[in-house]
């Protein structure tokens, strides 16, 4: 839902001035912060109760929460008390109060608000961030998930492997699966032997009737123009990744890619992330692009990044030009390596190309931005 809030400001502005407490924003703690944050877009105030600036912002923040913390809006307004939940604030580099950050859904990296803390400026900032989110989602959807129709369906499936979701827009289960399907398309879009697609059965009834689709969503696997099987049972992100990987592992192209990938380094985990050590580091970075996370297991930021890094590894597990790797700098034999590579904090992320360090990554640690950075270093002849 588009969010344009300027029309609401006048209605509430006098009310804000007359209230001194915030009872409407969500109070997050160590117990629920990491659970709730990925579920929606969030605007979070990190504060200290004794802070005068925080106290002055409280009524405005409360009114912002009253306006937005409803089912119809795709954002939640929350706050974290840094005097009682210090670890959260440490993990997010909070050094002053109040600090306001916007977190897009699924990301643990926030965009810091730097403007004046009045209601019009805050709502303008939220609008800008939500427009960015919408634009990113629209771009990913249009470029990666194939929308099949009566005109292009047969031609699309006649060669290769295709995983297709047959759905109805009004179906709640279709709606719940949609973001998972989008994420899977993002993960596998560099795999040249597979396409992810979808068919709207309310528009293209003949296709759905041809393949006996009577329930929504139905997930069908096609190879070289033939329907092979339908996926039944639990359909969450993990089970679908396992299913796709199993189907791809039957392919000679996939096995050859895996062979090349394994030759790139000594240890490649099932998640596609190479574990490098001082002894195999030089060999591990010799060919293609190697994107390396230097980390410490105790580091909060490293723990936050870990699941995204695994998703990045899985995304490129079939691409022999890109290797996603990590180095544990707390292991004794790796300490000198981390010093030599000038690792000054955790995590430090470097990109190497054909044995040479090219760049340090310092952007957003979302899967989309990390992928975009890696692929920007592929030459045109490598695409």
UniProtKB/TrEMBL annotation:
<keyword id="KW-0677">Repeat</keyword>
<feature type="domain" description="Thioredoxin">
    <location>
        <begin position="6"/>
        <end position="131"/>
    </location>
</feature>
<keyword id="KW-0676">Redox-active center</keyword>
<dbReference type="GO" id="GO:0012505">
    <property type="term" value="C:endomembrane system"/>
</dbReference>
<protein>
    <recommendedName>
        <fullName>Thioredoxin domain-containing protein</fullName>
    </recommendedName>
</protein>
<comment type="similarity">
    <text>Belongs to the protein disulfide isomerase family.</text>
</comment>
<feature type="signal peptide">
    <location>
        <begin position="1"/>
        <end position="18"/>
    </location>
</feature>
<dbReference type="Pfam" id="PF00085">
    <property type="entry name" value="Thioredoxin"/>
</dbReference>
<dbReference type="InterPro" id="IPR013766">
    <property type="entry name" value="Thioredoxin_domain"/>
</dbReference>
<dbReference type="InterPro" id="IPR017937">
    <property type="entry name" value="Thioredoxin_CS"/>
</dbReference>
<dbReference type="InterPro" id="IPR036249">
    <property type="entry name" value="Thioredoxin-like_sf"/>
</dbReference>
<dbReference type="InterPro" id="IPR051063">
    <property type="entry name" value="PDI"/>
</dbReference>
<dbReference type="InterPro" id="IPR005788">
    <property type="entry name" value="PDI_thioredoxin-like_dom"/>
</dbReference>
<feature type="domain" description="Thioredoxin">
    <location>
        <begin position="254"/>
        <end position="379"/>
    </location>
</feature>
<feature type="domain" description="Thioredoxin">
    <location>
        <begin position="132"/>
        <end position="249"/>
    </location>
</feature>
<dbReference type="GO" id="GO:0005737">
    <property type="term" value="C:cytoplasm"/>
</dbReference>
<keyword id="KW-0732">Signal</keyword>
């Amino acid at each position: 839902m588009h969010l344009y809030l300027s029309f609401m400001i006048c209605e509430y502005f006098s009310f804000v001035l007359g209230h001194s407490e915030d009872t409407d924003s969500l109070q997050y703690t160590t117990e629920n912060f990491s659970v709730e944050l990925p579920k929606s877009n969030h605007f979070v105030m990190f504060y200290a109760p004794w802070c005068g600036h925080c106290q002055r912002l409280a009524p405005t923040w409360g009114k912002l929460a009253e306006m937005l913390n409803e089912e119809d809006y795709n954002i939640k307004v929350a706050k974290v008390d840094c005097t009682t939940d210090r670890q959260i604030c440490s993990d997010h580099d909070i050094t002053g109060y109040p600090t306001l950050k916007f977190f897009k859904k699924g990301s643990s990296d926030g965009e810091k608000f730097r403007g004046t803390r009045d209601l019009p400026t805050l709502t303008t900032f939220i609008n800008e961030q939500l427009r960015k989110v919408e634009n990113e989602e629209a771009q990913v959807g249009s470029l990666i998930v194939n929308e099949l129709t009566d005109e292009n369906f047969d031609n699309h499936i006649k060669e290769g492997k295709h995983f297709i979701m047959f759905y109805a827009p009004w179906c709640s289960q279709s709606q719940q699966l949609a973001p998972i399907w989008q994420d899977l398309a993002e993960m596998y879009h560099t795999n040249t032997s597979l396409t992810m697609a979808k068919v709207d059965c309310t528009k293209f009834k003949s296709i759905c009737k041809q393949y006996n689709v009577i329930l929504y969503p139905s997930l069908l696997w096609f190879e070289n123009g033939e329907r092979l099987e339908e996926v039944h049972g639990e359909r969450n992100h993990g089970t679908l990744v396992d299913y796709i990987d199993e189907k791809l592992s039957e392919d000679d192209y996939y096995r050859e890619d895996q062979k090349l990938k394994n030759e790139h380094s000594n240890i490649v985990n099932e998640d596609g992330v190479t574990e490098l050590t001082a002894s195999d580091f030089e060999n591990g970075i010799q060919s293609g692009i190697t994107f390396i996370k230097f980390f410490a297991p105790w580091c909060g930021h490293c723990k936050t990044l870990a699941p995204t890094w695994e998703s990045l590894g899985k995304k490129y597990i079939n691409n022999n030009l890109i290797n996603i790797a990590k180095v544990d700098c707390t292991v004794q034999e790796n300490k000198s390596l981390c010093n030599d590579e000038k690792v000054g904090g955790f995590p430090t992320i470097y990109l190497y190309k054909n044995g040479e360090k090219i760049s340090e990554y310092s952007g957003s640690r979302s899967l989309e931005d990390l992928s975009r950075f890696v692929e920007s270093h592929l030459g045109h002849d490598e695409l």
